[in-house]
Amino acid sequence: MKSTSLPKVSSALCSVALLAMSVHAQETDATIKAYAAGYKAAFTCSATFNATKSPSQIAEHELKGIYPLIADQVKALPDAKIDIQNKRVSVFYSDTMPPRVSQWREHLGCVQLPVGATIKSTVEYLPAIELTSPARNDNAPWKTLNPVNTSSGNAKLDAVVKAAFKGDTFNTNYGENAFTTAVLIATPDQIITEQYIDGYTHKTSQRTWSVAKSIAATVIGAAVEQDIIDVKAPAPIEEWQTAGDPRGNITLENLLQMASGLDSNRAGNRTDRLYIGGGRVQDTSSRTAVEATPGTRWKYANNDTLLAMRALRGAMKNDQAYLEFPFKSVMHKIGMLDTKPETDWGGDFILSSQVWTTSRDMARLGILYLNNGVWNGERILPENWTEYVSAPAPAQPLNDSTPGYGAQFWLYNERFPELPNDAFAARGNRGQHLMIIPSKNLIIIRRGYDPAKPGGFQLHTFTKDVLDALAD
What we know:
Elements: H1 5-23, H2 29-49, H3 55-62, H4 68-76, E1 81-83, E2 88-91, E3 100-105, E4 109-112, H5 119-122, H6 155-165, E5 180-186, E6 191-196, E7 206-207, H7 211-225, H8 252-256, H9 272-275, H10 281-284, H11 302-316, H12 319-334, E8 340-341, E9 355-357, H13 359-370, E10 374-375, E11 378-379, H14 385-389, E12 404-405, E13 410-412, E14 423-428, E15 432-437, E16 442-448, H15 459-471
Antiparallel strand pairs: 1-2, 2-3, 3-4, 5-6, 5-16, 7-9, 8-9, 10-11, 12-13, 13-14, 14-15, 15-16
């Protein structure tokens, strides 16, 4: 890798952060305070009921190093009130408004109530499903019963993994602003090494952030395999079906490739009114205008992923079947039994970010791609889906020091010549990474709580060192 590549990446991230902050220049103080309370309620709820984390773990990891816009407000708010019996979290932030509330549901995790809503008037209407999870079988077809936090038997690899955890602060050998919580390296046959920080185990769940986008692509792939939806066809989004609406020409493929051409503010990765403001996908994502010809401009945008999933909902025409589909068609089939894909209060999945999962469940996702979409002899994804999501989209990120882009996956091809040309990855905020390398039959997972500032974990450098260690 060129010695100048790391500063370039950091500079690019800095630019995105500055743009993201500028997007919110018009937010009122009252709105920002409601956002902060929503953030605290949502993360406390998910970390408590999805991940069984303690209040001290939540304070140390979920509520530190967060968005500058709300960081001080979150710190100043009173402690969240955790209702264990009703699996509900409330955060008071105003003398005149109801508290912000996040409610847990079986399978679907936590959902925020809209700003101003009361528990009595809203909770009974929240989307919910009843499913029976399959029995766990950690041995087939992927052997996962070996102990964790043990040596890999490869001294060089152990040293590389140890370096990823180095230090008690936001600093490792792989990033000046990086705090690693887990590393898992595996093949379809077995885990090579699996390491966690103190207090975490293979059962500890974290938010995936934008790794969820790759889960969304996988769910849509299963729908393509079942002939439910066609990526080449216009996305069947209800709000775009008025005659003459140019958005009706946007294809599902445009959305998967981050090339919708839709306006998504300057920083398309910031969707605060939905993420922490209790909004709905149908109100925040599907009502923006076209500003570029679809398919000709790449722009990273949460809305494109959200709309891709809303298109699947439109194609299915059955809201209950839609809510059950990710479980029945993907996650339960491949053993992702500790994964909670969360929704808004209108029943749309927020698969641009809001999924909580363990490192082992994330590994199962990667191994599904190594297996070319087949699990335990059953085809889950189309035969060419691994190739499809990892093929360069027609429109690409302009900064050639960042990875390229396929369909909801990042591509480490000619832009990173020291890595295998077929390497591709799911990546998320705060350092959630799943690297998939078909030519090496290998997946590499790194989870973390990198602070929201330039820098962070350098996945490409870590991947190179892991491959070098395994080659010796």
